[in-house]
Amino acid sequence: MTKTLRLILGDQLNHQHSWFNKKDSNVTYIMMEVMQEQTYVKHHIQKIVGFFMAMRNFAEELTKENHQIIYYKLDDKNNLQNFKENIQQEIQNHSIEKFEYQLPDEYRLDEQIKNICKELDIKFAVYETEHFYTKREDVKDFFSGKKQYLMETFYRDMRKKHHILVTKDLEPFGDKWNFDHENRKKYDGKYPLKAPLLFKKDASDIVKLLDDKKVQHFGKIKPKEFPYPTSRKEALKILNYFCEELLPNFGRYEDAMLKEHHTLFHSCLSFSLNLKMISPKEVINQVIDTWQANKKEIDIAQVEGFVRQVIGWREYMRGIYWDQMPSFATKNYLNNDNDLPSWFWDGKVKMNCLKHCINNSLDYAYAHHIQRLMVIGNFALLIGAKPKEVDDWYLGVYADAVEWVQITNTRGMSQFADGGLIGSKPYVASANYINKMSNYCKGCSYDKDKRYGENACPFNSLYWNFYIKHEDKLKKNPRIGMMYRLIEKMEKSEIESILKQADIYLTNLNSL
Ligand SMILES: Cc1cc2nc3c(=O)[nH]c(=O)nc-3n(C[C@H](O)[C@H](O)[C@H](O)COP(=O)(O)OP(=O)(O)OC[C@H]3O[C@@H](n4cnc5c(N)ncnc54)[C@H](O)[C@@H]3O)c2cc1C
Ligand code: SF4
User: Fold this and answer.
1) Element (H, E) at 37
2) What are the phi and psi torsion angles at 398 (to 5°)?
3) Which of 42, 295, 415, 422 is most buried, most CB within 10 Å of its CB?
């Protein structure tokens, strides 16, 4: 029998992987907390703690099931702090004859491990992670020869291919593929809010370890009340909670934002999904089963809205990533070169919407989609922030941030740095949208109705400034033409005042 070493990365905690179907005394698994993963970007402390706790739980569970595990803690004396040297060390120590790994989801690690394998003088093999519905190259093949990758066409194909919410003739349940227009309600108090399910575990030992090892991080943590699910059991509890308590209103309030509640009816499943403690298939199956058993209480719009995120957006973004990397990480269609303001890291900003969304992110390492896209990302795009700086902030701050799903959302969907491959137009909005979808504007020091003058909402002047500044690149876009017709109708003096106001804000970003 061949003595084999199998690598498990921190986001490959998939109990259902076929690797674990049988015990084999010739197979040893290796998992490691390494400094290289703490420093490629500055992370939120809850993200690091969440990964370490989940990895340790996974290793413990595999050990209980009699698998052989080598686990490097960050402060282990023999830890050489990078994948390559630790792998080489174990291959030597245990006279390993074969090295095996699962396809990494990040390009950076994919390249690194391919290079490690090239240098090995033993055999190696690579496996699928068995997590996603699609293979890396499926999106590329699906859109072969197309200039724009329309998510909706991919999503419909996924529904048919996997028989999700379709009839026997592959027609959509509810006679419509997409209930998006029913998913745009402000929270009106009609359905009571539920507190998110938090686990409150003691993470003090890991927080101390990070301090001892001087790991740089940002954001806040309550070490004795760590909230994230860090085992499969807890991930399943989050899924149950979502299906029982939140699914009935998921779609309805998907785009709503509220000062008093940062998760509303969102599932908070992204961390469990991205670390693979739970699979998208079991999430979708349970959501559909719940709906089928409760059709009187849960309407199709709620379920379709959720299914679209998981089998549509999530799989689509992953496919785009593997089609477009590594060049995607250098895209900057609008040539943006501004710095993010300092309050992205400390939350000290007067703009009420940003104060809430940034502080949610710093307090919980979480913000829901519309907070990420239409408040924080919208602002970063309007000020022309450097895409790399925006990427690094998003990759660091959210516990669920793994590059394949972060960069496609940030550079692509949110910052339009790909020139419209993912989104057919930039996701920018003025105070009007933020006020429509939230209660942030009430009580804000800025005036949502003013474009310029004292306390005018910065989103307003920056919004028009954005269109005027990028006229050469955006005017021809049929989805944006109307904005330019509105600009043409504006008085010259109005435009001058708006641009002057935008300029004042752009030169004083740190004091907004
Ligand atoms: C600028 C920006 C950055 C983002 N960065 C990340 C990231 O680093 N990691 C991440 O997992 N998601 C990211 N997203 C997508 C989305 O915002 C999060 O998945 C979601 O907010 C996670 O919360 P939830 O689990 O409560 O999601 P829900 O709203 O309950 O949605 C259910 C699930 O659908 C999937 N999903 C929803 N929207 C998307 C999307 N646009 N792309 C891919 N999957 C999606 C997620 O797996 C999510 O858990 C980002 C979005 C934007 C606009
Ligand atoms: S007025 Fe402007 S800055 Fe204040 S909350 Fe509304 S959109 Fe945000």
Assistant:
1) helix 35-39
2) -95, 135
3) 415
pLDDT in tens, 315-345: 999 999 999 999 999 999 999 999 999 999 9
Report how far ligand 1's centroid is from the alpha carbon of 369 (Å): 6
Domain that holds residue 173: 138-199+232-324
CA dist 308 and 158 (Å) reads: 10
> For residue 147, what pLDDT band results from cuts at 50, 70 and 90?
confident
Crossing angle of helices 45-64 and 204-212, rounded to 10°: 120
* Closest atom of ligand 1 to CA, residue 414: 1
- Nearest ligand 2 atom to alpha carbon 447: 1
For the domain that residue 25 is a member of, what is the CATH number?
Answer: 3.40.50.620
Among 74, 91, 77, 90, smallest CA distance to 36 is for 74
What is the CATH classification number for the domain harbouring 254?
Answer: 1.25.40.80
User: In which residue are the tokens 């955006």 written?
Assistant: 474
Ligand 2 close to Cβ of residue 356 (< 6 A): no
- pLDDT band with cut points at 50, 70 and 90 for residue 183: confident
Task: Judge if the beta carbon of residue 256 lies within 6 A of ligand 1.
Answer: no
Measured over the CA atoms of residue 225, residue 229, residue 230 and residue 231, the dihedral's sign is: positive
Contact between 376 and 411 under an 8 Å Cβ cutoff? The reply is no
Q: With 90 as the cut, is the pLDDT of residue 184 above it?
A: no
| Cβ count near 299 (within 10 Å) | 16
pTM, rounded to two decimals:
0.97
